[in-house]
């Protein structure tokens, strides 16, 4: 059986050698690098199964290492764990947003180290299950032509990113890096008005794409994408997608079809904001959220008042009042941010 290969990038000789000794005893094959530049070279040459990397290093720090490895299609899917001192813990948000999978706070013992590695390797194996379900949906994108084989290959080679609730995936104005596919969880896209108010422009659930307009227009992202709950996404890089779209027009037409449906949905939302009562707008928002859940029977939603207000285009105080009315009328059950839909038929009647 082939040994699992782990690359350790750490400029402190004692720490690096100690980690390597533990991993060798645990049955792993280990590569060592004393700085970030050497680590990137070793990663590209040996394609390890997992990388442990310190943040503060000379020449090239851990963030630079992660950035360069993410640019290489052969290493972008490699599980990546940061090693960080306690004083640097607050900076880990940056690392996680860049695509790091986990982090260990120094000093850590051998059990913490091995548990983190085993957990990350197990998650990597489970990624294939996410991909297989998503690929079943993706077959419609290029059914009947050779594009499906290329698209399948692209998806299978991509890295699943675990996004924590409220974590930003990209900001408005960021250079477009590709489009994202939601594998689990929910993502919202928002724009901010001049006075700082938030306008929700879209919500995306499993097997749905976001970021398509920026890719097709070759312009920066026009909105900010944020995870509404713990979410897993897959990034399909711009360069690879452009090549695929140029070679297989049917795939391009399908993405345009998805984009057109999104535009129709936004036009409908604008009509609602302009002409519908607040009760009707709230019923439409709740029905839209129910559709995202893709469940049968009674549905439980978890969403904040602020997000509901942004979707419905009303003040949070108005949201609270309407939800209280719906609860008194037996349409919903509400506990904090948890909303249980008790009478879907009545919501539908109000919507119509």
List keywords for this structure.
352 residues; alpha/beta; five-stranded parallel beta sheet; 48% helix; elongated
Q: Strands, helices and their partners?
A:
Blueprint: E1 5-9, H1 13-25, E2 29-33, H2 36-46, E3 50-54, H3 62-71, E4 80-85, H4 92-98, E5 102-106, H5 110-138, H6 147-157, E6 160-163, E7 168-170, E8 178-184, E9 187-192, E10 198-204, E11 209-210, H7 212-217, E12 224-227, E13 231-237, H8 238-247, H9 249-275, H10 278-293, E14 299-302, H11 305-312, H12 316-328, E15 332-335, E16 338-341, H13 344-351
Parallel strand pairs: 1-2, 1-3, 3-4, 4-5
Antiparallel strand pairs: 6-13, 7-12, 8-11, 8-13, 9-10, 9-12, 14-16, 15-16
Helix pairs in contact: 2-3, 5-6, 8-9, 10-13, 11-12
Structural summary, described in words:
The structure is a single chain. The protein is an alpha/beta fold and 352 residues long. It is built from 13 helices and 16 strands. The strands form four sheets. The chain has a five-stranded parallel β-sheet with strand order 2-1-3-4-5, with helices on both faces. The protein has a four-stranded antiparallel β-sheet with strand order 6-13-8-11. Strand 15 and strand 16 form a beta hairpin. Helix 10 (278-293) packs across helix 13 (344-351). The longest helix is centred in the middle third of the chain and has 29 residues, at 110-138.
């Amino acid at each position: 059986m082939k040994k699992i290969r782990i690359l350790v990038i750490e400029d402190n000789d004692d720490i690096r050698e100690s980690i390597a000794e533990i991993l060798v005893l645990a049955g792993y094959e280990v590569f060592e690098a004393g700085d970030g530049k050497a680590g990137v070279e070793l990663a590209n040459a040996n394609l390890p199964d997992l990388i442990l990397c310190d943040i503060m290093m000379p020449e090239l720090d851990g963030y630079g290492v992660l950035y360069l490895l993410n640019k290489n299609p052969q290493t972008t899917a490699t599980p990546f764990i940061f090693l960080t001192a306690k004083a640097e813990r607050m900076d880990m948000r940056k690392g996680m947003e860049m695509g790091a999978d986990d982090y260990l706070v120094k000093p850590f013992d051998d059990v913490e180290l091995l548990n983190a590695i085993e957990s990350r390797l197990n998650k990597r194996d489970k990624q294939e299950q996410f991909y297989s379900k998503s690929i079943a949906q993706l077959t419609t994108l290029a059914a009947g032509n050779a594009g499906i084989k290329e698209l399948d290959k692209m998806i299978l080679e991509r890295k699943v990113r675990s996004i924590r609730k409220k974590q930003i995936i990209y900001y408005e104005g960021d250079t477009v890096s590709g489009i994202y596919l939601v594998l689990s969880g929910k993502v919202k896209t928002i724009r901010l008005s001049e006075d700082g108010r938030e306008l929700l422009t879209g919500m995306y659930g499993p097997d749905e794409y976001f970021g398509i307009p920026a890719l097709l227009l070759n312009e920066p992202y026009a909105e900010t994408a944020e995870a509404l709950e713990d979410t897993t996404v897959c990034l399909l890089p711009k360069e690879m997608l452009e090549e695929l779209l140029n070679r297989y027009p049917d795939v391009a037409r399908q993405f345009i079809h998805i984009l057109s449906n999104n535009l129709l949905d936004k036009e409908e939302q604008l009509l609602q904001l302009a002409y519908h009562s607040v009760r009707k707008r709230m019923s439409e928002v709740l029905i839209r959220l129910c559709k995202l859940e893709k469940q049968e029977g009674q549905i439980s939603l978890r969403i904040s008042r602020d997000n509901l207000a942004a979707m419905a285009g009303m003040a949070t105080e108005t949201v609270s009042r309407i939800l209280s009315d719906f609860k008194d009328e037996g349409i919903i059950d509400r506990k904090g941010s948890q909303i249980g839909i008790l009478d879907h038929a009545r919501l539908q009647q109000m919507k119509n």
